[in-house]
Write a structure and sequence with these properties.
By secondary structure, this protein is mainly beta. It contains one helix and 18 strands. A hairpin with a 2-residue loop joins strand 14 and strand 15. The two termini are 29 Å apart.
Length: 285
C-alpha cells in the first residue's frame, strides 16, 4: 500500500500549506484529480519519458466511492457453463473502499451463481490520447475470479472494419491460474462482425502482492506495460482515433477461460477480492 513516508509527507504538506491549493494534487482545478495524489507525480514507467500532466486520478483512500468519477454497476452478465455458473452479476455489494484501496470482491451465491463487482467512468470521465496507470493486487484465479483493468467506448458497436469508431481495450485480464495475462482489443461489436487481437504473455509472480499496469495511447498506436516492461503493441485498425471516447473500467469477473475451481468452493461464501491502490491518467503537456 502507500508507503509510510509518503503518508507522513502528505500530512506535513496539508498542515503547512492548507491555504495553498497548489500544494496537493497536480491539477486541483479539475474534479477528476484526487487532491491526495502527490503533486507533480509522473508515471512509474521509464520507457515513456517525462513531461506528463495529470488529468485524472483516484487514490481510493477516503473510504467512499467518488460518484463524480465512477458508476457502480448492477447488472446480469450471463452464464459461465464451463465453471458451473448458471448466472453471474456485477453487484454494488461487491464494491467498497477500505484499507486505502478500492476493493472489488467476488462471492459464490448458492451453488451456481457468482456476484462480482465493477466500477466504470461512463458519462463521467473519458480518456483520449494519454497514459493510464493502475497499481493492483489481483484476486485469486484459483477460485475462477478474474481481475480486469480495461476501457470501453459507447460507439464500439459501430461496424466499419476498424477500431477508429471505438474499441474494448482490455489492458489486462488475469484469466488463467498460471502466472500469465492476456491483453486484447475488440472492435466492431460482439456479433458476427466482431474482431479481436490479443497477446498472452508470462508475468512471474503476478498473483503475489501489488503490480503496476500502464497503457500508452498516442498517434502511433497503443502499448501496454506490466511493471514497466512492454508486453503488447497495437497499431493500424486496432487503434481508436483521438476523438473517440474511451471510459475506464475496473472489475472482477467470472473468468472466460474455464479455469479455476468455482464448483469446489463452499456455497454462499466470499471467494476473493482485487485491490486497486490507485488509478491515474496523464496527457502530454
Amino acid at each position: 500500500m502507500k508507503k509510510l513516508g509518503y503518508l507522513l509527507f502528505s500530512t506535513f504538506v496539508l498542515a503547512a500549506c492548507s491555504d495553498n491549493a497548489d500544494a496537493v494534487g497536480t491539477n486541483v482545478d479539475s474534479k477528476f484529480v484526487d487532491k491526495a495524489t502527490p503533486a507533480g507525480v509522473q508515471p512509474e514507467n521509464d520507457l515513456i519519458g517525462d513531461g506528463w500532466k495529470l488529468e485524472f486520478s483516484d487514490e481510493f483512500n477516503d473510504g467512499r466511492i467518488d460518484f463524480d468519477k465512477w458508476i457502480v454497476k448492477d447488472e446480469s452478465r450471463g452464464s459461465r457453463p464451463a465453471l458451473g455458473i448458471t448466472e453471474w452479476f456485477f453487484k454494488p455489494e461487491a464494491v467498497e473502499e477500505k484499507d486505502d484501496a478500492l476493493v472489488i470482491k467476488a462471492k459464490k451465491v448458492g451453488d451456481d451463481v457468482m456476484y462480482c463487482g465493477s466500477v466504470y467512468s461512463y458519462t463521467k470521465y473519458n480518456m483520449h490520447h494519454g497514459y493510464v496507470e493502475a497499481r493492483i493486487k489481483l484476486a485469486d484465479m484459483k477460485k475462477s475470479v478474474l481481475t480486469a483493468f480495461w476501457l470501453q467506448s459507447p460507439t464500439m458497436g459501430n461496424v466499419d472494419g476498424t477500431g477508429n469508431d471505438g474499441a474494448e481495450i482490455d489492458i489486462f485480464e488475469s484469466a488463467y491460474v498460471t502466472d500469465e495475462l492476456i491483453t486484447t482489443i475488440h472492435i466492431d461489436g460482439y456479433a458476427d462482425d466482431h474482431q479481436e487481437k490479443n497477446f498472452r504473455y508470462d508475468t512471474p509472480g503476478v498473483f503475489e502482492g501489488y503490480h503496476t499496469w500502464g497503457m500508452l495511447w498516442d498517434e502511433e498506436g497503443i502499448k501496454v506495460y506490466y511493471d514497466g516492461e512492454l508486453k503488447a503493441t497495437f497499431d493500424g485498425i486496432w487503434v481508436p482515433e483521438k476523438v473517440v471516447d474511451e471510459y475506464l473500467y475496473l472489475s472482477t469477473i467470472a473468468t472466460f477461460s474455464g479455469q479455476g475451481d468455482f464448483k469446489g468452493q463452499p456455497s454462499d461464501s466470499w471467494l476473493s477480492e482485487a485491490y486497486f491502490d490507485y488509478v491515474r491518467v496523464w496527457v502530454k503537456e
